[in-house]
Design brief:
By secondary structure, the protein is an alpha/beta fold. Helix 6 runs antiparallel to helix 7.
């Protein structure tokens, strides 16, 4: 079927905007993307133009959404679909935008008699966290990237750099910022103050119950399209978290949430710092042109070499900051 008009209708405005931005990067010539948040606006549009593909939120009443004429109809659902659902094909909303796009435009060809959507789940072949093999997967198998921001030189604007980088990337794709410094300044960098913070997110992760992506949407705030989670208020609580748990949390976020990139603003007190840097696709290391600062930077790089972590060096981008 020739697709010209691709329409998204979703009540979660932040999610829908992020999805639209990602689709803009993938759309082929001739495809027009449209975004609505109410059925009234969607119905008016459908009376004027043909909707070739409709991607609609399941929270709209079924009878009302079926009144909207569309050549192909997909429903964004919060729980993983187990089998086809007639004219309304279900798509799991808490996965990467690229996966959603492929399911619409490049659906897998299934052998006759194959049951259900098991191979479509994206993570069926991977062990779920909490089933005894939480850390058996490599981060490379998970959709999305970790970006580490770390420097042995302090008070040079590292957090501001991390936030600006995050906001820049968030203009094109869903990005999450996590501050993992020992003293992060609480909510200093954010005007809004969500009720929950990183300690709550860790609690939900440890429970291993419920829909983690929904829990994430409750915890996260947003600043200039960049999603963030407020840091843990007590440094002792952060220091008590082991590296295996941090890595499991990052994996959970990348595999079950919408984020294409997670920015880690790292401090010295986090357990397994070098191992976490080793899992990052890119590491930014801010520095300044000052003798003592350069000595610290050289010592840090030498430590990476001596501990067999040359791979971190290969993925490191040094960022010169202004003089202080």
């Amino acid at each position: 079927m020739h697709v010209r008009n691709f329409v998204i209708c979703d009540q979660e405005q932040r999610y829908a905007r992020n999805l639209l931005q990602m689709f803009q990067q993938r759309k082929a010539a001739g495809i027009e993307l449209f975004l609505f948040h109410t059925l009234e606006d969607l119905k008016r549009f459908s009376e004027q133009k043909t909707i070739h593909v409709l991607l609609i939120d399941e929270d709209y009443p079924q009878e009302q959404r079926r009144q909207v004429q569309a050549k192909r109809r997909y429903v964004l659902v919060k729980n993983m679909p187990e089998a086809p659902s007639g004219a309304e094909r279900e798509i799991y909303r808490y996965q990467g935008a690229s996966q959603i796009w492929r399911k619409i435009f490049n659906p897998p060809v299934r052998p006759a008699g194959q049951r259900g959507h098991g191979s479509d789940k994206g993570r069926t072949a991977m062990k779920r966290l909490g089933d005894g093999g939480a850390n058996s997967r490599r981060m490379a198998e998970v959709r999305g990237e970790l970006i580490g921001i770390y420097s042995p030189v302090h008070r040079i604007g590292k957090t501001l750099f991390a936030l600006e980088l995050g906001k820049k990337l968030a203009r094109k794709e869903p990005v999450l910022y996590l501050d993992l410094e020992e003293y992060a300044g609480d909510a200093f960098y954010f005007q809004d103050r969500p009720e929950r913070n990183l300690a709550d997110l860790l609690y939900y992760f440890r429970q291993g119950k419920g829909n983690f992506a929904v829990r994430m949407s409750v915890v996260a705030g947003q600043a200039d399209k960049l999603d963030y989670v407020l840091p843990m208020p007590y440094v002792q609580d952060m220091q008590a978290v082991k590296k295996e748990e941090w890595l499991g949390l990052f994996e959970k976020i990348l595999s079950e949430c919408i984020y294409e990139k997670v920015i880690l603003d790292l401090g010295d007190s986090i357990d397994g710092l070098l191992d976490i840097l080793g899992r990052c696709a890119t590491v930014y290391t801010p520095y300044i042109e000052e003798p003592a600062a350069k000595a610290k930077l050289n010592q840090y790089f030498e430590n990476l070499r001596k501990t067999g972590r040359e791979a971190v060096l290969e993925r490191t981008i040094q960022k010169r900051m202004g003089e202080r």
